[in-house]
Write the structure tokens for this entry.
Amino acid sequence: MEWGKWALIIAPRGAPGAGTRVDIPARPIHPPALMEHPPPSRDGQRVLLVVSLGLAVRLVIAALVPLTTDEAYYVDWARHLAPGYLDHPPLVAWLIAGSLRLFGHHELAVRLPAVLLQAGTALLAASLARAWAGPRAALAAAVLLQGAPVFSLGAMLATPDASLAFGWVGALWAFDRALTRNPRWFLLAGVFLGSAALSKLSAGLLGVGLLAALLATAAGRRALRSPWPWAGGCVAVTVASPMLLWNASRGWPSLAFQAHHGMRGGGFSALRLLGSLGAQAGYVSPILFGLAAAAGLRALRGLAVEERPARVA
């Protein structure tokens, strides 16, 4: 460490050292390496480049392609804001309304929240992949999410799926950090989970899955003995409370609507199940669907538990 300039000691005449100069620490000058943030790694820069390029392409397309029927439906919601609607929670309408107010009434303003949320989802997924498997996995996750139809094409549309994906991945990202770094991250996981619930009711399944993951692992059960997971759950309920209160005061019409919508096919049919799996594979891309299926089978066999058994896929 370097020190400041020489300083003159003023002492009574005749005292030892009177009138002499001594080297004292006037003001410590920290080395630049300690004062500056380290530059992002090359792998991190590549992730940012991939996500930025995808964002730029989607912004151009979003500005040129006319709105779909579903998007026009949500724009009408944005003109009549409410804490809930029959078929979906209200976050998509809130986001569109805010963007229209800020940027005017045109296609890009309607779709801008969805496009930006997709970029955020990709960055969160890349960060989570890096924590699990290193920088190459982070780059692979960013590239795959730019190419998957549900993210690359679906993210250009103003639908509840964009905010659902962002909240879903964000909840997993914060949940992982709560188990491996600091349990206070459960609070942020609650914010993400609550925002996902404000997007689609299916986010409730994620909450059930996270609780099951905590119960299934030793580290999770230890975490449940602390207040942080429960506080995170309270945060999630608080964030989602406008939609929950709206439904509760009206006899839960959204749940009834979605239950009827999901059960309209009647009894179980293997053919419909196969058709649904095929549609899901096309929705996320066959490659990503296959990788996800392989990862799920690997996890079920216990082969993915290595150095950090507390991590949850």
Notes: The radius of gyration is 26 Å. Strands lie at 7-8, 21-22. The chain has a mean pLDDT of 82. The chain is about 65% helix and 0% strand.
